[in-house]
Design a protein that fits this description.
alpha/beta; globular
Length: about 525
């Protein structure tokens, strides 16, 4: 065999060895029973045509590779954003393994989450016993100060009532009566991870503000001048929350961040394991009721939550993941208006530095065409920034975007000459994007790790700026919001442009007349 103690091959080389190639050949000939290579080639070529695109966009009852995840993933995200809180998913063990691994692969950090481990008997008779045992085990083994419960498909299909189940578990002594167990129903077969985020965050706020499922008196709001901030579901939360806190510190304003998982996903290696690190405390959740206003960075990720907060008497300022100059301007002006404080000189300087960097590089990105997919609010931010750079966001696709969102994207297109001819695609998936990349090619694709298959199929260079990112490391540690985040995104876009330019001009004596040292 090719692998031995004296000859260790990495997997990308190991499977090219003759022994493995013979295994692959035999498998294909004797077990796969495929169409002929020529037939497969013809079909593949047809899928690149306008005729196929029309058929692809006509489908109604089938989704192929959606650019979204399911509700419980967003709920697990929320639970990780509160201090000493354990995420408890009422459902099967396999589902929870997916949520844990998804976050761990992106953030390169362990993600704590437990399950009620529902199996076939629970699917028939209900999961009450699983809840009773599961809460007791979670409470005694992992010593949380709060357990946040959400659901998967199995529990929702059979109709398990979380409120009743949790109260029954407390009566059985699983956790103390006064122990906080906020909950949210998060059926995975509707909505997406941003819906789950919204439901779970709403569940936490309702629990503390509205009387803990009618087991305590609702809190009474006593307005003050404090400010809350909600970031929404954000794959760059480690870098972005540091930037948000820095901005508020420069204003001299104490901000109460509701749901901050950045500490849990940025723990140090110093000999101590931290199951819980950072996050919003229960006291901060209760204090948030009295705030003057709440700034929300993701309108479409927090629809129910923003409505709930507004109903409790606060002003809610809703933004769409501010990226670049104009988006950050609106954020800073909102802080200045709400607090009565001037925009700090340091931030004004950073704005000028970002504009200077954009001017230095605009000749390279001007007129370049981009296709991008991701969550609705994030894409609004990215689209606006591309237009500021003089680039063209030709295809903007969100599987979890609706027509209202699409209207806001079209308004951005209409606000800039670079938006002419650009199109938005709500509710579409990555198989739709594949057709677009073949029939209406662009220069670059902005997406997540799954976009590398589109890159391979269509030859469109991929820029990884969307959750999840599994095949690159540590992108989440850098901000994408604010002027500093805009500079980071600018460099990321430029790096991919220059790498692509070098790859296209690298052949000596043929294309290297543009293989320049200075760009």
């Amino acid at each position: 065999m090719p692998q031995s103690a004296d000859k260790i091959l990495d997997h990308e080389l190991l499977f090219r060895e003759p022994e493995y190639q013979e295994i692959f050949r035999s498998k294909k000939e004797n077990f796969e029973f495929n169409h002929s290579d020529e037939s497969i080639k013809q079909i593949v070529e047809w899928t690149k045509t306008e005729d196929y695109k029309q058929k692809n966009f006509a489908r109604e009852a089938l989704t192929v590779n959606p650019a979204k995840a399911c509700q419980p993933l967003g709920a697990v995200y929320v639970a990780n954003g509160f201090a000493k809180t354990l995420s408890f998913v009422h459902g099967s063990q396999g589902c929870v393994a997916y949520y844990r691994s998804h976050f761990s692969r992106h953030f390169k950090e362990p993600t704590s989450c437990v399950s009620s481990s529902m199996t076939e008997d629970a699917a028939v008779f209900g999961g009450l016993n699983n809840m009773i045992d599961g809460l007791a085990n979670a409470y005694n083994l992992y010593k949380p100060e709060m357990i946040a419960v959400s659901t998967t498909c199995m529990a929702e299909v059979i109709g398990d009532d979380l409120d009743a189940f949790i109260k029954n578990a407390k009566q059985k002594g699983s956790v103390p009566d006064a122990f906080d167990v906020p909950f949210a129903h998060t059926p995975a077969f509707v909505g997406s991870h941003i819906t789950g985020y919204d439901n779970a965050l709403l569940g936490v706020l309702k629990h503390f503000w509205d009387g803990k499922s009618k087991t305590a008196e609702p809190l009474v709001r006593v307005p003050n001048d404090s400010i809350n901030f909600i970031g929404g579901f954000d794959g760059f939360v480690v870098g972005n929350m540091k930037e948000i806190r820095r901005i508020f510190d420069l204003f001299g304003v104490k901000v109460n961040i509701l749901c901050d998982p950045s500490g849990n996903w940025d723990t140090p290696t110093d000999g101590e394991f931290r199951m819980y690190d950072g996050g919003t405390t229960k006291e901060e959740v209760e204090a948030a009721l009295h705030a003057k206003a709440t700034i929300v960075f993701q309108e479409y990720c927090c629809e129910k939550t923003t409505k709930f907060i507004a109903e409790h008497g606060q002003e809610v300022v809703v933004l769409n993941a501010p990226v670049g100059v104009a988006g950050t301007d609106r954020f800073l002006m909102a802080i200045a208006r709400l607090t009565g404080k001037p925009i700090p000189a340091e931030l004004e300087k950073e704005r000028g530095q970002l504009i200077d960097a954009m001017a230095d590089s605009q000749a390279h990105l001007h007129g370049k065409r981009y296709a991008l997919y991701g969550d609705p609010d994030q894409l609004l931010g990215y689209t606006e920034f591309l237009l500021e750079l003089g680039a063209e966001p030709a295809h903007v696709l969100a599987t979890n975007g609706n027509e209202t969102w699409a209207g806001k994207v079209r308004a951005l297109f209409e606000s800039s000459p670079y938006g002419a001819g650009c199109k938005v695609y709500p509710t579409r998936d990555l198989w739709h994007m594949r057709s677009l990349l073949f029939t209406e090619p662009v220069d670059f694709l902005i997406g997540n790790t799954y976009g590398k298959y589109l890159e391979r199929d269509t030859g469109t260079p991929l820029i990884r700026l969307v959750f999840p990112i599994f095949d690159r490391h540590h992108y989440h540690r850098f901000p994408t919001w604010g002027y500093a985040g805009g500079l980071r995104l600018l460099v990321t876009l430029l790096d991919e442009f220059f790498e692509t330019l070098d790859a296209n001009t690298i052949i000596p004596g043929k294309t290297d007349y543009s293989y320049d040292i200075i760009r």
